[in-house]
Design goal:
Layout (H helix, E strand, L loop, with lengths): L1 H33 L8 H24 L9 H22 L3
């Protein structure tokens, strides 16, 4: 079973790494849009923002429901990053339990 299980978990960990990278890009793009460095009306920026929004927001919106309103400061990406770190750590411990 570990012939399939360990590589599958390794692929899942890599996908989580990619998702975390996309989350950081999404947050930075949001900051750049707020400070008028990026123009959301640019077609290229709009298409990247739309793709990232569709990938990231389904996980951020439930977190936002539970966090208190802090007056314009959004801590939901930070909570999601810490949750991703936790899940990644658990998966890596599971992978290391199986002999190579």
């Amino acid at each position: 079973m570990d012939i399939i299980f360990v590589p599958l978990l390794t692929v899942i960990i890599k996908i989580i790494d990619l998702y975390q990278f996309l989350l950081i890009i999404y947050v930075i793009m949001g900051w750049l849009e707020v400070f008028n460095v990026l123009n959301r009306y640019n077609r290229f920026v709009y298409s990247i923002h739309t793709v990232l929004f569709r990938l990231i927001e389904p996980l951020l919106s439930p977190i936002r429901r539970f966090l208190p309103d802090l007056g314009g400061v959004d801590f939901s990406p930070l909570v999601l990053i810490f949750s991703i770190y936790f899940i990644q750590g658990v998966l890596e411990k599971i992978v290391h339990r199986f002999p190579a």
